[in-house]
Design goal:
The complex is a heterodimer. Chain A is built from no helices and 12 strands. The model of chain A has no long low-confidence stretch (mean pLDDT about 90). Chain A is mainly β. Helices cover about 0% and strands about 45% of the residues of chain A. Chain A has a single domain, classed as Immunoglobulin-like (Sandwich). In chain A, a hairpin with a 2-residue loop joins strand 4 and strand 5. Chain A has a 6-stranded mixed sheet with strand order 7-6-9-2-1-12, with no helix packed on it. Chain A has a 4-stranded antiparallel sheet with strand order 5-4-10-11, with no helix packed on it. A two-stranded antiparallel sheet of chain A has the order 3-8. Chain B is α/β, with parallel strands linked by helices. The mean pLDDT of chain B is about 95. Chain B is about 45% helix and about 15% strand. The radius of gyration of chain B is 20 Å and the shape is globular. The relative contact order of chain B is 0.14. The longest helix of chain B has 17 residues. Chain B folds into 2 domains: about 270 residues, Divalent-metal-dependent TIM barrel enzymes (TIM Barrel, Alpha-Beta Barrel); about 55 residues, no CATH class. Classes of the chains: A mainly beta, B alpha/beta. At the A-B interface, strand 3 of A face helix 1 of B.
Chain lengths: ~140, ~325
Amino acid sequence: MDINQKYMIDPKDIRNVVSRDGNRIGFELQLIIPYYRGAALSMIDELYVKVGAILYPKEQLTFTVDGFSYTWPQIETVTTFRWEYGTKATVFVPQQGGLDVSPIQHIEVGCSIRRSYGGRFPAPVVVKVAVDPCKLKAIRYQ
Amino acid sequence: MTIRLGVSLYSYQQTYLTGQLDLEGCIRTVVETTGATGIELIYEQMPLERYPDAVYPNITDKGISRWKELMDKYGTTPTCMDSFIDSKLYRGRISTVQEQIQMMEQDLKLASQLGFPCIRVLALVPPEVLEGALPAAEYYGVRMGQEVHPRFALNDEWMLNVAEISRRRNSKYVGLIPDFGIFSKGLPGSQLNLMKIMGENPDIVDFIEVSFKADFSHKEIAAQLRQMGAKEATVIAVERSAFMNRYNNPDLLKDLLDVIMHFHGKFTYMKEDCSEELTINYKDPIRILKEAGWDGYISSEFEGQRAYHGQNCPYEEDEIEQVRRHHVMLNRLLKS
């Protein structure tokens, strides 16, 4: 079940994140739900980001949608706010220095929604993109 | 008493996702390209309102008015709203029957606010949830139809139980919604088309289509494919399809027509000449419905786009054209 795999991530949305004091503290990407409808945030069953061999499990990530940010495990209790179909959520990945300036970085993202049917543990939809850090834009948070 | 046609907007999920059509555009496209007027909606896919206006299952009066204006503007009729009952809402446990009944009640309310006469209930929702929600269905005037979807069959005990509830309670508010996927022989047409796109020998792919229609078993076909030099992925796809694919004899419909309120016209690949769906039998079920004078909607539900969602798949299906072809076929079958 690779619903929307080709639409999940747009590499152009990947950006380094710079803190107020000018340090690159990580990077973020935008994610579309790998499902054909929206879902309560508690139903995000799996989410991870891999950069090369380094794995960032969901417990290290921050998930932002509709202007609200959540971390794990707190997000698992959020049943009345949703990740709507087609809405881009922002996933922040903490990594000192952000994505390195060179060479090309291979980023993998896996995400699954705990729908009610089709097996007890839905397999994550996995998408892999190559990013040239030299061309990354940075975003500075206040 | 007549069979009417509609479209589930699910058919346009990719066009919607990629921003080429919004909800209104989808409704307009149904009318302009098929002439059908029945609209089926997965509310959770194309909600009328989002945060901060209202979050599903809630809707404001403004959202309700917007929906009714759209129906008036295009002369369309709400036919069915698709309900899910997220029994895995919480990590680590399945929602209780009582919680699932509450979810059903929320969907029944939303459906009634939007003027849908019925909701589609997923095949795996337990019968006790349907029975428990029956008073709410009657209160809201919205029927609950359990979907008969592969790999279920019309004569499975699970489905017959739902028919039994309807008859025992003498209520039209619970019943069945068969999905035409149960009349499929072999792999979905879109999957066969994908094999060709990914470089499988077209003769091998056509062999799969024809041999399933001739009722050869999955094992026999897989063995023959190995001899023919098919790709391993092709053989595995055929072997795996054995689990989902159970062809239902369309005659099974005859004993259930009193509890069938709606149909999902599932399809994944319409031939260019609009003659038939590649692997789903439409001809015989529609003949049975016509002979019996069954009254209700067949709602096109195109699902072929999903076959091409792999990250490296170079092909994208034209959902709008596929639905148009489907209606050329359906209209011909209804008139013949």
